[in-house]
């Protein structure tokens, strides 16, 4: 039986449900935490501290966290992490009820939630290929579903739910997110066990972390897959930094219209995640990745030149579709070719590169918008994306992808339909 007709195992349904519930809770807290901070202070620097605290764990512990995940049982790491995050959220909820909530407490909670996210996301990324037998086609289908529901839950349903729950009381959205983590922990604990990573020679954690990072940099394919989100984050954060100003000053739209622009982008993301597997089969994974990257760059170029809100909305939808497909195809390929004992470190290294690159986009956009024009930041973002597409096209080409998949294929010789060209 070829891989494109094999069914996803029953355990995937529980993992899918768990991550959907958790994504919904994340969307609630992502809307509620900034609003809670805003209710406590109008100091922009204090608000920035709360916002940045959630990303710091990736910058400080990204590769080390991946090394730990490669030592630990992945299923246990996931459910223990989410159980801990559920308990953690009870602290600010109690503080809100007692009216002792503060900016330092919110920043600490955001940091610890981000640390939990580091361990959960890395463990989930490493667990999925073990659950699916490292089958490339199944991985693409699974990641397509995970990405689609994550976008819908955290992008569409979660933020408005968080705002609505906050109106009922400061503690309500925090408790709702705690419940989502608890449900996710219960579901993950019921997942089938997978083989634990094979213990390696007695090496220090730092040495193992370096080994995982060097594995990425020694492989042109993995390095190309890591460069896409790293450079992409510079460009997309640059777009996000000036988008509200661009929408107001150049397109003449208000808050409601700006919300519709973001909805258009999220809708495109859902579509892109849904058609990613089709693109991989028709074009080959390598060519599909090059095409989606080019689509992102051209879409941002169209956004920069957009004469009105309708054209801008269309450009953002197209950009979202490219991003959605890329975020299915890239991780699926990485999960199919990276050895299980290195999966956590490789995934966390790639994620850390993307997180470290993001602040440069904000500074670049702010400088260009101040020194020149808000459209200059968008044109620069488009240029970065198109340059990245040209640089990584050969690094992630079909021939290199097929060779990596063949080298990683199990001895049973399953047919790989995802990497072949049309």
TrEMBL record:
Q: Which residue ranges traverse the bilayer? A: 45-69, 89-120, 164-188, 225-247, 253-279, 286-304, 310-331, 352-370, 376-395
Phosphoprotein: is it a keyword of this entry? Answer: no
Signal peptide positions on this chain = none
Provide the Major facilitator superfamily (MFS) profile domain boundaries.
221-422
Domain of life the protein comes from: Bacteria
The UniProt entry lists the main location of this chain as membrane
> Which locations, inside or outside the cell, does it occupy?
Cell membrane
Indicate how the chain sits in the lipid bilayer.
Multi-pass membrane protein
Alphabetized UniProt keyword annotations? Cell membrane, Membrane, Transmembrane, Transmembrane helix, Transport
Query: Pfam families from the xrefs?
Result: MFS_3 (PF05977)
Query: Known InterPro entries for this protein?
Result: MFS_dom (IPR020846), MFS_trans_sf (IPR036259), TM_effector (IPR010290)
- PANTHER family xrefs: INTEGRAL MEMBRANE EFFLUX PROTEIN-RELATED, MAJOR FACILITATOR SUPERFAMILY ASSOCIATED DOMAIN-CONTAINING PROTEIN
In Swiss-Prot or TrEMBL terms, this protein is called MFS transporter
Give the source species.
Streptomyces katrae
Task: Name the lineage.
Answer: Bacteria, Bacillati, Actinomycetota, Actinomycetes, Kitasatosporales
């Amino acid at each position: 039986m070829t891989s494109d007709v094999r069914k996803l195992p029953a355990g995937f349904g529980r993992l899918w449900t768990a991550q959907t519930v958790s994504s919904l809770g994340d969307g609630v807290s992502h809307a509620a935490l900034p609003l809670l901070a805003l209710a406590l202070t109008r100091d922009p620097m204090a608000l920035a501290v709360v916002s940045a605290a959630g990303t710091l764990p990736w910058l400080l512990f990204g590769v080390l966290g991946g090394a730990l995940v490669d030592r630990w049982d992945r299923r246990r790491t996931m459910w223990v992490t989410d159980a801990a995050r559920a308990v953690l959220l009870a602290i600010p909820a109690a503080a809100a009820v007692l009216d002792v909530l503060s900016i330092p407490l919110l920043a600490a909670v955001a940091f610890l939630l981000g640390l939990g996210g580091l361990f959960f996301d890395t463990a989930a990324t490493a667990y999925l290929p073990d659950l699916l037998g490292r089958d490339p086609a199944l991985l693409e289908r699974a990641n397509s579903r995970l990405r689609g529901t994550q976008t819908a839950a955290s992008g569409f349903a979660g933020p408005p739910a968080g705002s609505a729950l906050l109106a009922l009381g400061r503690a309500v959205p925090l408790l709702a997110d705690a419940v989502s983590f608890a449900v996710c922990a219960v579901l993950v604990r019921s997942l089938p066990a997978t083989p634990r990573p094979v213990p390696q020679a007695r090496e220090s954690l730092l040495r193992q972390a370096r080994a995982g990072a060097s594995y990425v940099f020694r492989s042109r394919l993995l390095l190309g897959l890591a460069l896409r989100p790293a450079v992409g984050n510079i460009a997309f954060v640059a777009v996000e930094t000036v988008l509200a100003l661009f929408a107001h000053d150049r397109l003449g739209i208000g808050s409601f219209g700006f919300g519709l622009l973001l909805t258009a982008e999220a809708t495109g993301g859902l579509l892109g995640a849904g058609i990613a597997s089709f693109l991989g089969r028709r074009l080959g994974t390598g060519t599909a990745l090059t095409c989606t990257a080019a689509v992102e760059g051209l879409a941002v170029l169209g956004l920069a030149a957009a004469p009105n809100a309708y054209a801008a909305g269309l450009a953002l939808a197209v950009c979202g579709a490219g991003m959605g497909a890329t975020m299915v195809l890239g991780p699926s390929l990485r999960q199919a070719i990276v050895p299980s004992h290195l999966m956590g470190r490789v995934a966390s290294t790639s994620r850390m590169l993307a997180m470290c690159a993001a602040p440069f986009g904000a500074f670049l956009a702010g400088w260009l918008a101040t020194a020149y024009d808000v459209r200059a930041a968008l044109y620069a973002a488009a240029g970065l994306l198109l340059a990245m597409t040209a640089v990584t096209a050969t690094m992630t080409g079909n021939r290199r992808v097929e060779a990596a998949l063949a080298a990683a294929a199990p001895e049973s010789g399953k047919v790989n339909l995802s990497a072949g060209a049309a």
